[in-house]
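Lay summary. Proteins are chains of building blocks that fold into shapes, and those shapes determine what they do. In this project we predict the shape from the chain. Here is one chain we studied, written as its sequence of building blocks.
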Amino acid sequence: MRLTCILVALLLFSAAPSLAAIPSLEQGQQLFNQRRYSPALSSLLIAFEAEPANPEVNFLLGRTYFELGNFEAAVMAFERVLFVEPNSSRVKLEMARAFMALNSNEFARQYFQEVLATNPPEAVWSNIQNFLAGIKESEKHHFFTGTLSYGLDVDDNPRTAPVDDLISLGSFEFQLQGNGATPASDYAHSLTATANHIYRRQGNGFFWKTSALTYNSFYDNQSDLNVNYLEISSGPAWKKGLHLWQNNLLYTLIRLNQAQYRDGWGLQSTLTSQIMAKLFITSLLRFEDRTNQRYDYRSGQNYKATINPVFILPYVGRLSLGVTYEYDDTKQKTFSYNRLWYQARIDHQFPFRLAFYANYDRKDSEYKETDAMFQVKKDDTVEEFGLGLSRPLWQSETQSQNLILALSYRHTDATSNIDLYTYRKNVGSISLTYGF
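And here is the predicted shape, written in a compact code that computers can read:
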């Protein structure tokens, strides 16, 4: 009986399929190399059924599961390889990466240290050090980022003076006089600063984000147009899988020529989802209650809803589209409006770290009540065309800090059924931004 069992076992072993006899493995490898991970998985599962203990099948199966985001299944596949080849450094590296993706930092760190103990090649050693640094970074609770920017604008119409200073008023016409009657070029210096703080608890996808933005613009000759803008927002956020949901309480303040012009408080909710590998969609809802200190009749509530799909296209780069609906409900309904805002932007990366963008924006606004002076409901369209080019001048070794030089140009074309609000505007800008 014992001899019979041995003969049967030898017969089964000799009949076990070899790699060459498993065409699904070769097909799975080809599909994996083509980054067609779902069909690759189907082929590899057939190979796994034929030879479940084969280390090559399990290794490729683990890598495919990893690329598909099934990190638990990837770990199990790699463990089957280590059962057969317990000293394989390559498999331990893949195990460590999978444990990192699962936020199991201690297991990831253990496998990385085991590979380091084998004195690997310098390139492998360097990559492991980067992974270990990433683990250490992921275990932090507090994160601070921000930017500081200086810009110089050449603006040929800062007061948005109308195309024609002869304005129609019903059957009458009158001539504009003084500032704003005709375009007058000026230089504007701007200082912009942003600061962000994130508090994150490890392992649950929850964090709290607080942000502050301040923009300050100063004109050389028309100082009454100097503006200071401040926005502060804070609130909880959750990240789960391919979805990020942020909710903020916000406060805004505008000062014009050193005097308070308008302030407001509000709420904002933003959801960003990765729909496919190269498609992201962001949706936003925002409410703001505004108080206008200079013109109280313009105080009121502002409502905004936006949807913004972003495509990553081969040979083109990043294509961003956006549609926004905005409703402004003021005390004096003459200034209340419905607005549709359309946006399109292309970002493309050129050699030598040059980044280019081109954008087109269009705002169609329809006001609620008849203007008492002009005896019509204001209806206008504002179109903007923009181009820009930027390049980093310096970047720290850790890539956490950089200095970027940018050049841009934008043309604004506003058309209204009231002559006073029909204008043209061109602005050229140069800016230097430090990011940290």
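What the prediction tells us: The chain has two domains: 18-138, 145-435.
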